[in-house]
Amino acid sequence: MSQDRVAKAADVSTSVLQRLESGIHTRLKVRDLRAVCEVLEMPQETTDAMVGLLKQAGEQSWWHEYDSLIPANFDVYVGLETAARRLITYQPALVPGLLQIPEYARALIRAVKPDESAADHERRLELRMRRQAKLSRRYEPLQLEVVLHEAALHCNVGDPVVMGAQLRHLAEIGKMPNVSVRVLPFKAGAPVGDPVGQFAILEFDDGGREHVWPPVVYLETFIGCMYLEKDGDVRRYFRVLDSLRGAALDESVSRSLLRHVAKEFSA
């Protein structure tokens, strides 16, 4: 049967059926799924299994505990970050959330949300710290590559004591086999030519054997965020990444610079 015939017989839209058969997330009601299974003459036990999977997919993941504090579109990113096998990010001004120490993160949270209560600040901090667990989990830890502009090393967040501790943390965590921290020095100038804001590239696959989803580029701005999935857009950001990588210090020299600047904050 064609998709059009199945969709018509089950009284669902063709686009819903196309997304369902392609493994793409789509809104689907239990009654619609049962109708599709009936049209396809699936055995009752198979239909029940399909319905069970649909209901299970609707269960909230851990980050939904923080619904009242996360913008409606941000949980999309947290979900992608949780599912990603590899994350590559460029940060021109601040240390990325996955590598922030609690004191550094707390200072940023207080600055962004000055009107919130101390309890809400701590809940935001807890969320950020929980996200970092994926770097140290025993099974398939997240592969993280960070290119950090040297300006971020001198941007005083919190106070000099906090900055010194944060930079020493970056130097140490960069020794982990799944974490790479490299610094783009001031002397590199503008390797891309155009100004480049912060971005993250998330890659998803099954141990390199099979691509589950294409890469996604995440752009965060002061008023919102964007997700780029078109092949041309993603390839352009990979070219930008190659330019930044080529101009960045290697990991060993980057660690030395991080420790040197940390000492300056401690002086």
From TrEMBL:
Residue span(s) of domain HTH cro/C1-type: 1-47
Superkingdom in the source lineage: Bacteria
GO terms assigned for molecular function: DNA binding
Protein name, per record: XRE family transcriptional regulator
Species of the source: Nocardia yunnanensis
